[in-house]
Write a structure and sequence with these properties.
Dna Ligase, domain 1; 8-stranded antiparallel beta sheet; alpha+beta; Rossmann fold
């Protein structure tokens, strides 16, 4: 990348149309570039970590996504009220909404991401498949027609042959995605997918795909620079998924030979080049029995982008911002190889011993163990509240090491040393996955979770010493509760009452 005079950047003040850890990530990138930030937030995210970090704040609506983060008009008005030059959509919410990209440009602001045209061509899963056909890229058998009646979709599912996946055309991240295993399930699953898609993305349009039951999920990071050069930045292994949402991601995939990596990378660049793609995007494939098929293209930054950054030494968020300023150009020898191996785990507020039941509440003590090859991205700190309004991800834990086995071992050690009080987390679940022989071998498919972790984890057996310790804490909590009841609202508040939760 050529050197950039930061004093001449077209963006002086950037609005962030998102929340949580991605908002924090964007704020940090802007700080390094000398760009002021405006956080466009809901009333539920007042006093979040991003709120405390941003230079300016604008409340754009109520707690539900429809009232705030999915409201195009409110986001535009909020950004204009603080004289923002540009808007970064992060990922999720409006990040793949072509109308939002257009609204930003129409309002005289820079949209940090691909063009409206590219989003319409690739972000809509149906249009994307049509473009892939023209490029000669293999596709999974399916239906992408305009007839969206339940009757037609049910007939097409029967024609394709069960099992079939119904997916939202306008979004991703597992929203609006349902598995249909037989004709009796078709109507209910299709209607459910349409409702969920409308709620999450503002469009009820869906499409159908044959479900590959032994596939691996492998995606390629692509980036289109300021002069139209599109490069792929290698791949990520994303096969460990639950309910169609990724849990653990890696760079690079342990499954690809150099030849397969070349072929899939060329296919990823071809469809991006055909759409005249700029900025960061991801081309996702299913890989089974030595063959790959295009799954979709995500016209945005991915949650799992840090693992690519770790093996390449690139800052994709800064690259997005510089690219929007027409100041990011690839050099010929840049990012032609990767170093080592990186793994990301998504830490969610949920109970691993109750099948992933969401866990809400105020965070108590939070600690992530710093060290070489360790990275933590989080949107919440001690005292912040995990609500039921949004995705319950607390943090992303990322590690890098010289080999995959060493990266796995480092991640387990980091999770062992991480502390989160106040809510239950999926850390025990993550450690169980990382320790599984199939994961260690790198042979897991998208069925890995269903095959080995379909039941809730069994709670660990407490030692005599631990049992005595916990019993004593409970006893002390009981003692403190009585005076509080006697003294009314002015009584002593036992700190353990809010903050103590066993993983």
């Amino acid at each position: 990348m050529k050197k950039t005079d930061l004093s001449n950047l077209a963006i002086k003040r950037l609005a962030i149309a998102n929340r949580g850890e991605v908002a924090v990530r964007i704020i940090k990138a802007c700080e390094e570039l000398g760009i002021e930030t405006v956080l466009l937030h809901s009333d539920a995210d007042i006093n979040s970590r991003a709120y405390r970090m941003a230079d300016h704040k604008v409340c754009i609506g109520g707690s539900t996504p429809a009232e705030s983060y999915l409201n195009i008009k409110s986001n535009i008005q909020g950004a204009k009220a603080k004289n923002a030059d540009a808007i970064h959509p992060g990922f999720g919410f409006l990040s793949e909404n072509a109308d939002f990209a257009k609204a930003c440009v129409d309002a005289g602001m820079i949209f940090v991401g691909p063009s409206e045209h590219a989003i319409r061509s690739l972000g809509d899963k149906v249009h994307c498949k049509e473009l892939a056909k023209k490029c000669g890229i293999p596709l999974v058998p399916g239906y992408e027609g305009d007839d969206q009646t339940v009757e037609t979709l049910s007939k097409e599912a029967q024609r394709i042959g069960y099992p079939v996946i119904v997916k939202a055309a306008a979004g991703g991240g597992g929203r609006g995605m349902k598995l249909i295993t037989n004709a009796g399930e078709a109507r209910e699953r299709i209607e459910s997918a349409q409702r969920e898609s409308l709620s999450a993305f503002g469009s009820s349009k869906v499409f159908l795909e044959k479900y590959l039951d032994r596939a691996k999920h492998i995606e390629f990071q692509v980036f289109g620079d300021s002069v139209g050069k599109v490069r792929h930045l290698f791949e990520r292994e994303c096969s460990v998924q639950r309910r169609h949402q990724k849990i653990i991601e890696e760079a690079t995939s342990p499954s690809l030979t150099p030849e397969l990596r070349r072929k899939m990378g060329e296919a990823a660049m071809l469809i991006a080049q055909t759409a005249k793609y700029t900025s960061a995007g991801t081309v996702e494939f299913l890989f089974q029995d030595g063959e790959f098929f295009l799954l979709e293209v995500n016209t945005r930054l991915q949650v799992e982008h840090p693992v690519t950054e770790m093996v390449l030494g690139i800052d994709l968020v800064k690259a997005q911002i510089l690219n929007a300023c027409q100041s990011f150009i690839f050099s010929e020898d840049q990012y032609k190889s990767f170093q080592g191996h990186s793994i990301e785990c998504r830490v969610y507020a949920e109970n691993s011993y109750e099948g992933g039941m969401p866990s809400t509440g105020k965070l108590g003590h939070v600690h992530f163990p710093e060290g070489p090859g360790r990275r933590f991205e989080y949107g919440f700190e001690e005292g912040d509240v995990i609500t039921s309004f949004y995705d319950p991800m607390i943090a992303k834990v990322i590690v890098w090491d010289e080999s995959r086995p060493r990266a796995i071992q480092k991640m387990i050690e980091v999770l062992n040393q991480s502390v989160i009080f106040g809510v239950h987390t999926n850390i025990p679940y993550l450690k169980a996955i990382l320790s599984h022989p199939e994961f260690i071998a790198g042979t897991m498919t998208t069925q890995f979770i269903n095959k080995y972790f379909s039941e809730p984890l069994k709670p660990p057996t407490r030692s005599t010493e631990m049992s005595s310790f916990v019993d004593e804490i409970k006893k002390q909590m009981g003692k403190s509760a009585a005076p509080k009841a006697a003294m009314g609202s002015a009584g002593y508040q036992n700190p353990w009452a809010e903050h103590w939760r066993m993983w």
